[in-house]
Amino acid sequence: MASRPTVTVYGADGAAGSSSVALPGVFLAPVRPDVVHQVTVALSKNKRQPYSVNKYAGKSCAASSWGTGRAVSRIPRVQGGGTHRSGQGAYGNMCRGGRMFAPTKTWRKWHAKINVTQKRYAACSAIAASGVTPLVMARGHRVEDTPECPLVVDASVESTAKTQKAVDLLRKIGAHADVDKVVASRTMRAGKGKMRNRRFVQRRGPLVIYDKDEGISRAFRNIPGIDGLYGTPTEASSEKTRHGTPYRMPQLQMANADLSRLINSDEVQSVVNAPKEGTAPKARKANPLKSAKAMDVLNPAAATFKKAATEAQATKKAKAKRVNAMKSTFYKQLIADES
Predict the structure, then answer these.
(1) At a CB cut-off of 8 Å and minimum separation 6, what does 107 contact?
(2) Which CATH class is domain 6-48+116-243?
(3) What confidence tier does 256 reach under pLDDT thresholds 50, 70, 90?
């Protein structure tokens, strides 16, 4: 079921025909989920409606600050008397009945611009992903019984005008399992949308691509979920996709993804430089204040000076200990004579 340079044309009875058509170039476009996500997020912002709070909300009362010197904060306070409201803080977002912080405005930047080239790139990437069976299955679609992905059907199905015939066609080509999944996924929407004519939600199903509408749109429009992430194009629409647009489809950066084979090929190995050998590794820099070996390189007399300083310190310490002992003995003798 993997995508190939050519795809087989299946008949209306679901049997594979003897003819085949070249795979449209759009199915060979690079799959870029980051570009698709960026474009869809930007386009979804264009459906938003501006909203804001009332510009007078939280400011309907007369209030002024009491100033300093009254052991209260300098927030504006309601004037008057005779009620608990007088003297209470007002206007601030930390006050009861006050305005919100940074009140929302209708002139916020709601929409986002996205250039046409990027939108076309995202559309090509999404269509190319619909031709990769593992991605389609990971998306949750039931394509286990579908012979190929994308599945090209004979152009005679464009004259299908009855929904029952369309359902029979989906069963024959193994795509009706995805419709059954859509029917089973219909649930009530969570949130306020159920009050706004958006009561139910359901998954998406097959995507039908046709060239001429000879009744096929009326046949498929009442089938749940016929609008989704993997396609069932007709033979004529496949040819039109291949030749019907002046837009240059995105190309893969690598025609052969086997990078190790490219590097180890005779053509590449014959022109690359030989590996360099015998180069000494870079010595690690040592801190002379912490490394005695590094200090000896910089100052050969450092070890002698350090040894002399250690001996002098030991001599000084021994002399101080001897002097302290003599002082202690003299003091004890002095106390004994007085007593």
Answers:
(1) 50
(2) alpha beta
(3) confident
